[in-house]
Amino acid sequence: MVLHWNSGLRRIGIALGAAALSLGTLASPAHADEVASLPPFQPHPSDWQPNYSVWPTSLWQNRVTPEMVDAQRESCQWFNAQYDQLMGGVYGFQKFLGQQKDVWTAPGVQGAGNTVIANLDQSATFLEPRAHTLYIINYPDQSEYSPLYNGDSIYHLWYQFTQISDKMKRKLPAGQINANIATANVYGNTIRDSGVCIDA
After folding, report:
1. Helix (H, G, I), strand (E, B), or coil: what is residue 135?
2. Which of 16, 31, 72, 154 is least surrounded by Cβ atoms within 10 Å, i.e. has the fewest?
3. pLDDT > 70 in the chain, percent
4. Mean pLDDT lowest for which of 18-22, 57-61, 171-175, 183-187?
5. Which residue has the higher pLDDT, 7 or 195?
6. For residue 130, how many other CB atoms are within 10 A of its CB?
7. Which domain holds residue 167?
8. Sign of the four-CA dihedral 56, 187, 40, 85
9. What is the secondary structure of 84-134 as a DSSP string?
10. 3-state secondary structure 138-155
């Protein structure tokens, strides 16, 4: 578990630099008033099944519960439906805030920020119980992991949403929010590139 965790940290550290460079090229609203509220998301039944072929999750299938399968399926459905729009709003607001010299009282900033915060909070509220179902304690060493492929990425993505929202509520400068945005981007790309959510 320690080796797996350390490897993950190295991978994230490498990816953060690339993510930070790429954020400016992603689609984002040109103006703050283009940020739209996300509708409440409703999961639905499907035939999707987890990927048990990837090591080391291939060794942990006997630890997977039906509740974990439902949690990942529903998280993946949310990801496929709303992740890109949510993060597009986050990127757009970060850029807009920077253009306004990080002045939260500048015209349009607080209103747009409130919409993005509401979208983040709504998404985090949906993901929270599912993320905690996916991320469990390993005995006897008490380390945390997910027995489902990229279940840990869903957990970490949820956590970054809470941190971005918290920093925005405290009206921090765009640069101070950037690390959490870049980290969320890393986990979002990890989920997408893995194909784990296809056909969820």
Report:
1. coil
2. 31
3. 81
4. 18-22
5. 195
6. 24
7. 66-194
8. negative
9. HHHHHHHHHHHHHHHHTTT-TTSTTHHHHHHHHHHHHHHHHHHHHHHHHHH
10. CCCCCCEECCCCCHHHHH
Q: Which range among 87-96, 135-144, 151-160 shows the weakest confidence by mean pLDDT?
A: 135-144
Number of domain units in the chain: 1
d(CA 168, CA 87): 14
Average pLDDT over residues 45-68: 90
The 3-class secondary structure across 118-132, one letter per residue, is HHHHHHHHHHHHHHH
The answer to whether residues 149 and 50 touch, using CB atoms and an 8 Å cutoff, is: yes
**CB-based burial of residue 161 (10 Å sphere; 0-12 exposed, 13-18 middle, 19+ buried)?**
buried
Structure token digits, residue 33: 């008033």
Q: Is residue 109 part of a domain?
A: yes
Query: Residue 199, exposed/middle/buried by CB under 10 A (0-12, 13-18, 19+)?
Result: exposed
Locate 199 and state its tokens: 């056909």
Locate tokens 């893995």: which residue?
194
Whether this prediction's pTM lies above 0.85 is answered by no
